[in-house]
Structures are given as structure tokens and as C-alpha cells.
Amino acid sequence: MSQYAELKAQIAKLQAQADEARRAEVANVIAEIKQKIAEFGLSAHDLGYAEGARRGRPPKKAPLPPKYQDPKTGNTWSGRGKPPKWIVGKNRDRFLISQ
Predict the structure, then answer these.
(1) pTM for this structure?
(2) What is the DSSP letter of 92?
(3) Which residues of the chain have pLDDT under 50?
(4) Where are the alpha helices (DSSP H) in 1-99?
């Protein structure tokens, strides 16, 4: 057997030993951490971890208060998005809601 092949065999053996030692140490560390968490009643938030990502649609935002009002119909518009037909091309100052 060549020296290179022997060294590769030694590397593989040492790597397996290192992997086994790490597994054993990780198991001990996890057990210690779990014990401390239970002892002190800690949560993920206490440890600085954010809550997991939520699935689905994000919660709806509260609607904006109306900024403009049509004096004829009483319809309102917040000033965001596509303007309604009753205000298109007109001076918006006339339709401002006084607060």
C-alpha cells in the first residue's frame, strides 16, 4: 500500500472519530440547554429569536381615513389609489374634508 493511500485511510478514520465525538458533545450541549430553558422558563423571544414566518396573506391594514368627499353623493376617497370619477380632472381643494 502506498503512503498516500495509508494517509487517506488515516484521514477517513480520524474524520469518523471526530464526527462521533461531535455528535456526543452536541447531544450533551443540547441536553444542558434544554435543562436551562426549562429551569428559567425561557422562550424563543427571550433568546432573541423571532417568531416563525407566517403563511398565507398578511393581515389587512386599517383603512385610511377619508380626505376628500363628494358633496353631491357623500362618497369619500382617502387620496390613495385610482381617483374616483367624481374628482378626476377637478380641483381637489374643493373636495377636501375640513377637520
Answers:
(1) 0.41
(2) G
(3) none
(4) 3-40
